């Protein structure tokens, strides 16, 4: 037989932390007082209207909503409901037991069952706790008498006299069921909250709740598997009895675990005190070192001060001697009174030298000592950074590693990192970065706290290198810093544009994606039909496409990817006054062939830079980058062929009239040449055969989250 006082923990409402009062069973099978459910829903609805959670807590002092529940206000508030009646209208309820958002359905609170069994147990607990406290009659005139019985049909308590009056013999009320004095009145028949006139007679095995026959016929349980109430009662009672018997049979094991946990509690207490003592000793050592340094610094300042004061005081006394009737001047005045020439000359010679020195010092006055103590300023910048990073280091916390393949620089920086192992992952990360500058001796790291494993960093200077590092934190424990990764920003602000699908766009040979950020050239029937008509010295025409936005001035940078399978791609810029000539040129590129002096086999046309061409382009193809043939280019053809970078970039400087072609991954210039920027300049691309170009996507604040979702 279980002692009723030993189960108090199971009878406490998780919201108000008091004994249950009319508990309701939530869909998650946790119990909450009926009043607490309403107050929590009202508190959340009030917080939506007031724009904050503090007022809701203050208006409902009886309940204690956890911070994790309050954090979900934003999600629940999207319904836009407001409190305008005695019944809360929100159907999404934050369960204080499991901290999950529970959907109460269309009926809300009215669709929940009261847990009458739990009410009965709570009432027995209350009676055991207050044994001597009597329950008074509800019908006696003041002063009321102590009740002797309670009627379950009338839901009231009576003394003997009042019970006879209200339940006379020979009437229907005489057949009412009565029990000993109680305040817990439960209905004889459990009614369905969905259909109030129907009693529950089945049990839904899917929803794990009693239902009536109307719920099964046309309600929300129509397609659910149900069983009779007697079968469910028997099955659940057998399961519960077996589980209880099993737990009782394992009582010795439970007691052993409790003893072990008691030892762990004591051990934890001792270890925490030992850790505190060790931490205190570590800080005491630091204090001792700082006190010694402080004493030495103050002693040096005091010594220097005394020496300077002594020098200045001596100088003051010397200058006071120059005043009339004082010191040196007074003494000289007395010497002038000497009438004996031999005695006067004997004394005046040395005096005259001193007077001359005093005169010179007046002409070029200079203090005997400095008043500032700039040489005694203590530089604690590095030590301050080190102390700021002072924390508990753990070998169990993995050192994060910055993923250089997923990290990139464009209009903003995207820094991604990962942990080698999956155990003991950090709760939060600290990302630090600083600009590499050889002139600066003291490095100042910019710090950002990140909850995930990636971060977008803004406001970086163009054409600069930055060092990044990251460390993880789990509570007060932190991992060592990761290896520093250096990334370089583009040489100019990023220029955003899309492919132009109107000006000269050949939709028979080229295909644009809906967002106009990718273009593809397919070596299909149109190319074959064009080549079929040409027999000797055949020429093939490139398919050109330009950007939809032009550049009139300034310095700009854009990046793109060329697919590895691309046969031939030309990239560069074209002025607005030569666009028409570009699209009407018929002999842009000679047909594929092998030439001994071309430096490569067929696959890319002659890597040839002709100033007469309407635009400035360089050739890419077959995973190669071809430096154009210019007077300054290497004479060896092999040295003009470079591996094609995974990401290419173009930097146009209209003010200087130059265009550069970059390896955008490393921000390294591969080739630069002059360009005529007299008109508005447009990004230009040319494709032939199977090829594809994808414009680099600008980095937004949620760039990494979007790509992770994809």
TrEMBL record:
<feature type="domain" description="Fibronectin type-III">
    <location>
        <begin position="399"/>
        <end position="492"/>
    </location>
</feature>
<keyword id="KW-0436">Ligase</keyword>
<dbReference type="InterPro" id="IPR047065">
    <property type="entry name" value="TRIM36_Bbox2_Zfn"/>
</dbReference>
<comment type="similarity">
    <text>Belongs to the TRIM/RBCC family.</text>
</comment>
<dbReference type="InterPro" id="IPR050617">
    <property type="entry name" value="E3_ligase_FN3/SPRY"/>
</dbReference>
<keyword id="KW-0862">Zinc</keyword>
<dbReference type="GO" id="GO:0005874">
    <property type="term" value="C:microtubule"/>
</dbReference>
<dbReference type="InterPro" id="IPR013320">
    <property type="entry name" value="ConA-like_dom_sf"/>
</dbReference>
<dbReference type="Pfam" id="PF18568">
    <property type="entry name" value="COS"/>
</dbReference>
<dbReference type="InterPro" id="IPR017903">
    <property type="entry name" value="COS_domain"/>
</dbReference>
<keyword id="KW-0863">Zinc-finger</keyword>
<dbReference type="GO" id="GO:0016874">
    <property type="term" value="F:ligase activity"/>
</dbReference>
<feature type="coiled-coil region">
    <location>
        <begin position="258"/>
        <end position="285"/>
    </location>
</feature>
<dbReference type="GO" id="GO:0001669">
    <property type="term" value="C:acrosomal vesicle"/>
</dbReference>
<dbReference type="InterPro" id="IPR003649">
    <property type="entry name" value="Bbox_C"/>
</dbReference>
<dbReference type="InterPro" id="IPR036116">
    <property type="entry name" value="FN3_sf"/>
</dbReference>
<dbReference type="InterPro" id="IPR000315">
    <property type="entry name" value="Znf_B-box"/>
</dbReference>
<protein>
    <submittedName>
        <fullName>TRI36 ligase</fullName>
    </submittedName>
</protein>
<dbReference type="InterPro" id="IPR001870">
    <property type="entry name" value="B30.2/SPRY"/>
</dbReference>
<keyword id="KW-0175">Coiled coil</keyword>
<keyword id="KW-0479">Metal-binding</keyword>
<dbReference type="InterPro" id="IPR035727">
    <property type="entry name" value="SPRY/PRY_TRIM36"/>
</dbReference>
<dbReference type="Pfam" id="PF00643">
    <property type="entry name" value="zf-B_box"/>
</dbReference>
<keyword id="KW-0963">Cytoplasm</keyword>
<feature type="region of interest" description="Disordered">
    <location>
        <begin position="50"/>
        <end position="88"/>
    </location>
</feature>
<dbReference type="GO" id="GO:0004842">
    <property type="term" value="F:ubiquitin-protein transferase activity"/>
</dbReference>
<keyword id="KW-0833">Ubl conjugation pathway</keyword>
<dbReference type="GO" id="GO:0007051">
    <property type="term" value="P:spindle organization"/>
</dbReference>
<keyword id="KW-0808">Transferase</keyword>
<dbReference type="InterPro" id="IPR003961">
    <property type="entry name" value="FN3_dom"/>
</dbReference>
<dbReference type="InterPro" id="IPR013783">
    <property type="entry name" value="Ig-like_fold"/>
</dbReference>
<dbReference type="GO" id="GO:0008270">
    <property type="term" value="F:zinc ion binding"/>
</dbReference>
<dbReference type="InterPro" id="IPR043136">
    <property type="entry name" value="B30.2/SPRY_sf"/>
</dbReference>
<dbReference type="InterPro" id="IPR013083">
    <property type="entry name" value="Znf_RING/FYVE/PHD"/>
</dbReference>
<dbReference type="InterPro" id="IPR040859">
    <property type="entry name" value="Midline-1_COS"/>
</dbReference>
<dbReference type="GO" id="GO:0007340">
    <property type="term" value="P:acrosome reaction"/>
</dbReference>
<dbReference type="Pfam" id="PF13445">
    <property type="entry name" value="zf-RING_UBOX"/>
</dbReference>
<keyword id="KW-0677">Repeat</keyword>
<keyword id="KW-0206">Cytoskeleton</keyword>
<feature type="compositionally biased region" description="Low complexity">
    <location>
        <begin position="55"/>
        <end position="70"/>
    </location>
</feature>
<feature type="domain" description="B box-type">
    <location>
        <begin position="187"/>
        <end position="229"/>
    </location>
</feature>
<feature type="domain" description="B30.2/SPRY">
    <location>
        <begin position="477"/>
        <end position="704"/>
    </location>
</feature>
């Amino acid at each position: 037989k279980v002692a009723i006082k030993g189960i108090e923990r199971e009878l406490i409402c998780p919201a108000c932390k008091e004994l249950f009062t009319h508990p309701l069973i939530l869909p998650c099978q946790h119990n909450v007082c009926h009043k607490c459910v309403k107050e929590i829903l009202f508190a959340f609805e009030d917080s939506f209207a007031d724009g904050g959670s503090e007022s809701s807590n203050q208006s409902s002092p009886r309940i204690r909503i956890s911070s994790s529940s309050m954090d979900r206000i934003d999600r629940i508030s999207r319904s836009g409901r407001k409190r305008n009646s005695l019944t809360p209208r929100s159907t999404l309820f934050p369960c204080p037991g499991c901290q999950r958002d529970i959907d109460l359905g269309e009926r809300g609170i009215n669709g929940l069952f009261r847990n009458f069994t739990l009410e009965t147990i709570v009432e027995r607990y209350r009676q055991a706790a207050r044994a001597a406290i009597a329950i008074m009659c509800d019908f006696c005139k003041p002063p009321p008498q102590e009740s002797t019985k309670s009627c379950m049909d009338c839901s009231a308590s009576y003394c003997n006299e009042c019970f006879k009056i209200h339940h006379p013999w020979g009437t229907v009320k005489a057949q009412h069921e009565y029990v000993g004095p109680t305040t817990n009145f439960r209905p004889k028949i459990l009614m369905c909250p969905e259909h109030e006139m129907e009693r529950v007679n089945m049990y839904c095995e899917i929803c794990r709740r009693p239902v009536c026959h109307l719920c099964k016929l046309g309600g929300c349980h129509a397609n659910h598997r149900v069983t009779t109430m007697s079968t469910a009662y028997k099955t659940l009672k057998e399961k519960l009895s077996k589980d209880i018997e099993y737990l009782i049979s394992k009582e010795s094991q439970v007691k052993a675990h409790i003893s072990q946990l008691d030892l762990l509690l004591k051990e934890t207490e001792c270890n925490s005190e030992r850790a505190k003592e060790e931490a205190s000793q570590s800080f005491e050592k630091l204090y001792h070192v700082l006190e010694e340094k402080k004493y030495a610094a103050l002693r040096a300042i005091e010594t220097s001060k005394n020496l300077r004061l002594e020098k200045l005081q001596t100088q003051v006394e010397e200058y006071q001697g120059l005043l009339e009737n004082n010191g040196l001047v007074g003494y000289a005045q007395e010497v002038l009174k000497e009438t004996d020439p031999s005695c006067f000359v004997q004394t005046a010679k040395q005096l005259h030298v001193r007077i001359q020195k005093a005169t010179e010092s007046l002409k070029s006055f200079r203090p005997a000592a400095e008043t500032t103590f700039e040489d005694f300023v203590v530089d604690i910048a590095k030590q301050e950074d080190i102390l700021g990073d002072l924390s508990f280091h753990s070998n169990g916390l993995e050192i994060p590693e910055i993923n250089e393949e997923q990290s990139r620089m464009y209009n903003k920086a995207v820094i991604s990192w990962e942990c080698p192992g999956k155990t003991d992952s950090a709760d939060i990360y600290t990302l630090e970065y600083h600009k590499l500058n050889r002139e600066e001796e003291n490095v100042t790291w910019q710090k950002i706290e990140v909850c995930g494993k990636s971060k977008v960093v803004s406001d970086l200077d163009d054409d600069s290198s930055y060092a990044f590092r990251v460390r993880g934190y789990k509570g007060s424990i932190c991992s060592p810093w990761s290896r520093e990764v250096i990334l370089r920003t583009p040489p100019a602000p990023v220029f955003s544009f899309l492919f132009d699908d109107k000006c000269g766009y050949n939709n028979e040979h080229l295909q644009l994606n809906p967002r106009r950020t990718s273009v593809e050239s397919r070596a299909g029937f149109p190319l074959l039909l064009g080549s079929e008509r040409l027999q000797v010295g055949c020429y093939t025409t490139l398919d050109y496409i330009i950007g939809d936005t032009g550049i009139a001035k300034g310095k700009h940078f854009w990046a793109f990817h060329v697919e590895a399978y691309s046969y031939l791609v030309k990239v560069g810029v074209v002025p607005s006054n030569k666009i028409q000539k570009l699209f009407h040129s018929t002999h842009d590129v000679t047909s594929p062939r092998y030439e001994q002096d071309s430096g490569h086999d067929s696959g890319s046309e002659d890597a040839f830079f002709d100033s007469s061409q309407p635009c400035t382009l360089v050739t890419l193809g077959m995973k190669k980058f071809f430096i154009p043939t210019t007077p300054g280019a290497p004479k060896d053809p092999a040295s003009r062929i470079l591996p094609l970078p995974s990401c290419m970039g173009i930097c146009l400087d209209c003010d200087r009239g130059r265009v550069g072609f970059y390896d955008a991954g490393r921000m390294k210039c591969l080739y630069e040449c002059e360009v005529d920027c007299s008109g508005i300049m447009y990004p230009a691309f040319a494709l032939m055969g199977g090829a594809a170009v994808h414009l680099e996507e600008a980095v937004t604040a949620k760039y990494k989250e979007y790509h992770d979702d994809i």
